[in-house]
Structure formats: C-alpha cells, structure tokens
Amino acid sequence: MKAVIITRYGGPEVLEIQELPTPAPAADQVLVQIKASALNRADLLQRQGKYAAPSGSPENIPGLEFAGIVAARGPEARLWHEGQRVFGITGGGAHAEYIVVNERTLAEIPANLSWAEAAAIPEAFVTAHDALWKQAALCPSERVLIHAAGSGVGLAAIQIARAIGAVPFGTSRSLDKLERAKEYGLEAGVDLRVSLNLLTDFTNIETKGNGFDVILDLVGGPYVAADIQVLAMKGRIVLGATVAGTKADFNLGQLLHKRAHIIGTVLRARPLEEKIIATQVFAKEVVPLLAKGTLRPTIDSEYSLSDIRAAHRRLESNDTFGKVVLKIAE
Ligand SMILES: NC(=O)c1ccc[n+]([C@@H]2O[C@H](COP(=O)([O-])OP(=O)(O)OC[C@H]3O[C@@H](n4cnc5c(N)ncnc54)[C@H](OP(=O)(O)O)[C@@H]3O)[C@@H](O)[C@H]2O)c1
What we know:
This protein is α/β, with parallel strands linked by helices.
C-alpha cells in the first residue's frame, strides 16, 4: 500500500509517499481500505517532531481519521461485513491506502455523504460533541463561546450547539470566517485580530453582562485568561488546544468567585477503550443528525495523496475554513 511517511522532522518537504506492506487484521480488528482522510494540527506537530504518536500508533505515518470500506476482518471480528462504508478516529496511520483498526472504533457512514464529506467528519464532530455535550454538559438556551469558530472543530461545535438548543457565539482573526460561520448557525462573532480585549465589549453586548455559560477554547495561551474574564457564574471552559501557547496568567480569585470549571481534553492520546466509547456515542447521537442533514461537514479544500505537502501547507496557512481533505482512492 501507499502511505505518507514522515522521513525526518521538519517542514512539509520531509513528507514522502512510500510503498509499505498492507497490514493484516488480527483478532477483533478490521482492515479498512481508505477512500479519503483529512488533516489535523496534530499531523503538523508530529511532522515537526513536537507531538509523538500515542502508543500503538505508527511513529511515522500521520492521519487521525478516515472514511473507507471494510476490506477484510480478523478471525474474531463480528460487527461488520466486507464492503460496508465506515468512518472513524485513530491515533495515527490514516494517511495511507489501508489501516487496521479495532472493529468497535468504526461507525457506519450515512448514504447521503460522499467519501470526502465523510472523511471531514470524525475528528471535528467527535471532539466538538464530546466537549460540549459530555464534558461541558451544555444545556438548551445556554450561551456558548467558541474560539477559532471557522476551524473544523469550531464549525462542528456551532452546529452541535444549535442541535442542543444552545446559542453559539464565536471568535476568529478573520471577519470573513465569522460571516461564513453564520451559515452554520453562528449567532454573532468578534474578530480578535487587532486585540483580545475586544472580547469584553462583545461579551457585555451579547450576554447583557452575564458572560458565557460555556467556552470551547480551541486556541489556548492568553485566550484562557480572557475566558475567565468573560465566563458566567458556574461557567465551564473546555480547553482543547494550545496553538497560541501553553502558558496562562490569570486571577485565581476570579476562578473561585465564579465557581468556574476548567476542563482539559485530548482525543488522540485516549486509550482504546475510551476511543471506543467516544465512537459509540458519536454513532448513536451524532451520525443520525448527519444522516438527516441537521449537521454537515465543511470542506475547505481537497488534495490527492501525492499532494500531501501542499495539503500540509494549506492547513499551516491558517486561512482554512473547515477541513482539508485527502483523497486517497476513487
Ligand atoms: N483536544 C482535542 O481532542 C482536539 C481534537 C481536534 C483538534 N484539536 C485542536 O483544536 C483546534 C482546532 O482544530 P481544527 O482541526 O478544527 O483546526 P483548524 O481547522 O486547522 O483551524 C485552526 C484555526 O485556529 C486559528 N488559530 C491558529 N493559530 C492561532 C493563534 N495563534 N491565535 C488565535 N487563533 C489561531 C486559525 O483561525 P483564525 O483565522 O480564526 O485565526 C486557524 O485556522 C486545533 O488547535 C487542534 O489542534 C483538539
């Protein structure tokens, strides 16, 4: 099979397409022929040598999500049959023509979704749903603020918030992304390119001074101190990224006074059993809404496997709106 290989740490030029043996499924594993995958920030960091693959995942093949068909089953696999259309998340190795995964980490792709659309879904929607629904316990009519609202996860989170009956607000460093995000249900947004301080006035206007009940922070760094400022009493912050930095300086007194919760989350490094749970919840609660068209993926751009370097450059540009998809087979 062909696979993207990180030949050494560095820029996109270190990526090469190489031939590897196709893996064989053991026990309760399934071999999936990947039709399409998508890129994530973790792939960029892994390529740079800043985010090692979790245990059990290949060190040199990136790719955290895939859509494809069941090509073969291990001797104890019972849930799927050859030819079924499936998608899912994995700790790595999805930027390849084939992958072997545990059969319980798969969900069936609804018939209304193309391969590219299906590939644009798992990481963004599992992350957003898990963060807002499971971890922050977002309730109908609550106000939720989503940083990097035009990101793949951000656009999924806007739609999931609406599906819950909550009211999604967003930030970006691009007014254009905020305008486009309104098509996905964004109530209002603020462009923070000039200053993070603009968030205070925005919050006062949009929440009548009450603050946001939930904040999905997909940026980190100095955004965390701003989050605590604009959080409502008993508010919940779910921190899912550190793209703007790993350090925060904030007033602990404010945290106490607001009786606030800060929750950190990662998906890639979760052990298999937790990935299975996240997949089962996704299959039960999110996939039916994708089948109905209530939720829809956002594709920024599509690249073939041989254009993997260009795909990495596109994601690194920060100009993307939604997901960068990798087309692997017809
Ligand atoms: N915890 C988890 O389980 C999990 C899972 C998936 C993804 N993530 C993380 O969640 C974030 C969103 O993921 P994604 O795949 O949806 O990302 P994405 O589509 O690549 O979008 C990321 C966006 O973040 C904004 N951004 C980048 N650097 C920034 C900075 N220094 N300050 C402010 N904004 C910045 C940019 O948009 P603007 O134009 O708005 O600035 C960029 O387009 C990523 O950081 C990713 O690593 C976490």
